[in-house]
Amino acid sequence: MDYNFSKNFIEFEDLSPEEMRAFNSILNNIYRQRGIDFRQYRPKCLRRRIVVGMHEANVESFCAYLDFLNKNPQQYDKLLDRITINVSEFFRNPKTFKAIREKVIPAIVERKENIAGYNIRIWSAGCATGEEPYSLAILFKEALQKLGQNSKINIIATDIDKNALRKAKIGCYGVKALKGLKASQIAAYFDKDNDNYCIKHQIKVMVKFMDYNMISDQLPRAVDLILCRNVIIYFNKELQNKVYANFYNALASSGFLVAGKTESLMDIKEELFAKVDIGERILQKRTKRKSNNENI
Q: In what order do the strands lie in the sheet with 190-193?
């Protein structure tokens, strides 16, 4: 499972060959231990995150940091957390959730209202510690109640960080993470446990957490809504195109994709997605038109 250093070797002009090899060896060790391949992430982003780890370890070179990590292998988990950035809160970017409630949910319901007993399938890709998928569960539960709908909501929440997923499955948070919630929502959907607030069973059962690599693992199918916010920006262009194509294939007909505010929509192929709300990064899957020679 080692990297082929002659292929996709990350290079920086200002580093010596020894430093370059140490930098790539750090990534190789993460790959061997956790199966996560960062070679198609943006090199400058990776370097910045690794340098922060170097400063915390009080070392000044990638060679010294590699030696530190090999002597303290538990530090690889902390480095992985730093690279993947698991910072979240409930209803982060409230305007995005407002747009989902007003523009996405009614469209999904209208498309499915003639299907008896239908389920609404949602994928939170890069769910971190769970605030986003639980926010979606609350949002859809409340919105469907207002619309007089009683559909079952299935939310798939995935991430490559197993430590973050463990926290997400427990579903207990400090008060800071709840600042985007109304007092009535906290009372309705959380139980107080000392200084923490824990998600109630009625919300927790709507979400299934999975250790998942959105680049290489088998895709979910017939998903009505995908949220993947502020993750794709760290990928290079080739990998971004692959991920957007994967999302297209995972979505149901006319399904929606919500990207992050930091991500540009300029390079997204218009034959795949229509722009519903550029400001809130909401896209809708287009139906591909096939030629007369193709099977429909």
A: 172-174, 196-199, 190-193
Report the sign of the C-alpha dihedral through residues 224, 197, 187, 177, in that order.
Answer: negative
Per-residue tens of pLDDT for the chain, all 296 residues: 444 444 456 778 888 999 999 999 998 888 887 667 777 677 888 898 899 999 999 999 999 999 999 999 989 888 877 777 666 799 999 999 999 999 999 999 988 876 655 799 999 999 999 999 999 999 999 999 998 887 899 999 999 888 889 999 999 999 999 999 999 999 999 999 999 999 999 999 999 999 998 888 899 999 999 999 988 877 878 888 889 999 999 999 999 999 988 777 777 888 899 999 999 999 999 986 544 433 32
Rg of the chain over all Cα atoms, to the nearest angstrom: 21
Between the CA of residue 294 and those of 62, 249, 290, 291, what are the distances in Å? 53, 18, 6, 5
Question: What DSSP character marks residue 91?
Answer: T
- 211 phi and psi, to 5 degrees? -75, 115
What is the rounded CA–CA span in Å between residue 283 and residue 67?
45
Other Cβ atoms less than 10 A from the Cβ of 110: the count is 10
- E strands along the chain, which residues? 119-125, 152-159, 172-174, 190-193, 196-199, 207-211, 223-228, 251-259, 273-277, 282-285
For the chain, domain boundaries: 17-84, 94-285
Place of tokens 């079952």: 152
User: Rounded to an integer, what distance in angstroms lies between the CA atom of residue 51 and that of residue 64?
Assistant: 12
Rounded Cα–Cα distance for residues 30 and 46 (Å): 13
Name the maximum alpha-carbon separation found in the chain.
65
- Are 159 and 136 spatial neighbours (Cβ–Cβ below 8 Å)? no
Q: How far is CA 199 from the centre of its chain?
A: 20
Residue pair 226/121 in contact by the 8 Å Cβ criterion:
no
The pTM of this model reads 0.78
CATH of domain 94-285: 3.40.50.150
